[in-house]
Structures are given as C-alpha cells and as structure tokens.
Specification:
Blueprint: E1 9-16, H1 28-36, E2 38-45, H2 52-57, H3 63-75, E3 81-84, E4 100-101, E5 104-106, E6 109-113, E7 119-123, H4 129-132, H5 136-162, H6 170-176, H7 179-199, E8 203-206, E9 213-217, E10 220-224, E11 233-237, E12 243-247, H8 254-271
Parallel strand pairs: 1-2, 2-3, 3-5, 7-8, 8-10
Antiparallel strand pairs: 1-11, 4-5, 6-7, 9-10, 11-12
Helix pairs in contact: 1-3, 5-6
C-alpha cells in the first residue's frame, strides 16, 4: 500500500518502553505498524529499548527489529523530538546521561510539560528496584517465573493464530492473578508516586514492570506505558493534552498483522 494513503493519527507526545529489541518475545511488527500509522511531535523512549541482557545470552536480531530501530532513529531526522531514557536492560547507555547522539537526547529522568500545563516526571522505573524487590532469591525466582509465563504466552498465541483467533496476552492475565506480582506492582506504583510528591510534580510516567495502567494515587497521576513484550501498549498525549493508553493489538487490522507475524515465525523455523 502506498504510504500516502495510510491514515496517521497525530500525537503531541508518545511514550514507549520495554520494547526489548533482540528478545524472542519482542512484538516488533506491531510496533512498526503503530509507528507507521502515527505522526509524533515528541517521542520518549522510556527504557529497555534494546534487550542487552537477552542478546548477551543469545544474539538474535531479525529484520523486523532492525526496521524498528531504523524507524526510531529516522523519526529524529524527520522533525520529531526523541528522548531516550535507558533502563536496566540497556543499562550501559545510562552513563551517557545528558549527552545528545545525533538528534537523540539521552537522559535518566526528564520533566515533561503537557499541553494543559501539567508537570510529569518521566523515568524508566528501575530506580525503585530496591524498594520493590523482596531480596535476591525472590528476585531470581520472579525472573524465572516470568520467563516461563512468556514461554507459555508464546505457544498459547501460536495456537490461537492457527485457530484464527487474535492475539491475547495470557501472560498479562496470569500475572494479574498472582498475589505476589500484584503486591510488587503496588509497591512499585507507590515508590513512583512518592518520588513525584517529593519533586512537587503532578504525576509520573514510567515503564519497567510490563503493566500498563493509568491511576490516581494520593492526588497524583500514575502512568505506566506498558511494553511490547506482552501488551503492545503506548501512552499517548493528544494536542489538547488528553493522555490515554493505546493497545495496538486491539486495532481493526491487528488480526491480519498477528497472523502474518505467526506465518513469518513458522517460515523462519522451517528454514532453520
């Protein structure tokens, strides 16, 4: 299709995090589709854009991941302001805080002012790990359990694709019903809000925990933009200042995109 005929929604601001390029479970095709259907004044890349942890174990960089990275870099040359806030999975880049590479700004934290004058602290969220984690053993067990959830989610959705059903995050559903996970999410939210209170801002935008949410807590706004591992979500600000979450798998053409992604995956497996 000629790009001139592709409808594009315009956003004053978009926040994306936890893309995890280089990870098996990265939904790069969905993200590329979202970016191709959007025009963005300011783009915040809120950490874990490249999964250096996963690539240190096994290097994986399919063409779709390369296309996403190229698209993100090209946006800064096409008039969008792009700010990258490294997280824990791309931690080696945190040392470049305050430096601009090409047209991309790098920062650990940033204050964003909305169209209606609200001040929002933007950060990945790994800054609060010590306040959330229950100790090294529980943290290790949590990581292994999450890897298992993603494995189950991957095969579950392959089966759904074979039955012509759309993508659905089984991992997100299971995680929301695990008591320990809910407790950690609550502690994380309050750690974020306490930072916002101490800084005297109106709210916080973060990622890190792969749990998209908008909430009012202690008179402050809590925004978590989610991820592109489970939820394929973005936090967006319209020109009027309205902020809302978008789940790209719920768009009208998501079913076709999901089936295409599964077909490609099966083709790559056969080729290997």
């Amino acid at each position: 299709m000629n790009n001139a005929f592709v409808y594009r929604a315009h956003y004053r601001t978009v926040w994306l995090s936890d893309i995890h390029l280089g990870n098996t479970d990265c939904k790069a095709e969905y993200l590329l589709d979202f970016l191709n259907h959007s025009t963005i004044d300011t783009l915040y890349l809120v950490g874990d854009i490249i999964d250096m942890w996963a690539m240190s174990k096994q290097f994986r960089w399919p063409e779709s991941h390369n296309q996403v990275l190229h698209k993100l870099m090209s946006l800064s040359k096409e008039g969008s302001r792009v700010i990258f806030l490294p997280g824990n999975h791309d931690a080696p880049l945190q040392k470049y805080d305050g430096i601009t590479f090409g047209e991309i700004e790098i920062a650990r934290e940033m204050i964003h002012t909305t169209a209606d004058g609200k001040k929002l602290l933007v950060l990945h969220g790994d800054q609060f790990d010590q306040a959330v984690c229950f100790g090294p053993l529980q943290s290790w067990i949590g990581d292994k359990a999450y890897d298992l959830l993603l494995f189950i989610n991957r095969w579950y959705n392959r089966a759904r694709a074979m039955l012509k059903f759309p993508y659905w995050s089984l991992a997100g559903y299971l995680k929301s019903h695990i008591k320990g996970a809910n407790k950690a999410i609550t502690r994380y939210k309050y750690a974020c809000i306490n930072r916002a209170i101490n800084m005297g801002v109106d709210g916080v935008v973060c990622g890190h925990i792969h749990h998209p949410e908008v909430a009012d807590i202690s008179g402050k706004k809590y925004y978590n933009d989610g991820d592109w591992i489970e939820n394929c979500s973005a936090l967006t600000e319209l020109p009027c200042g309205e902020i809302k979450l978008i789940y790209w798998t719920q768009t009208s053409h998501a079913n076709n995109l999901f089936n295409l992604r599964m077909s490609k995956a099966r083709g790559q497996k056969k080729a290997a």
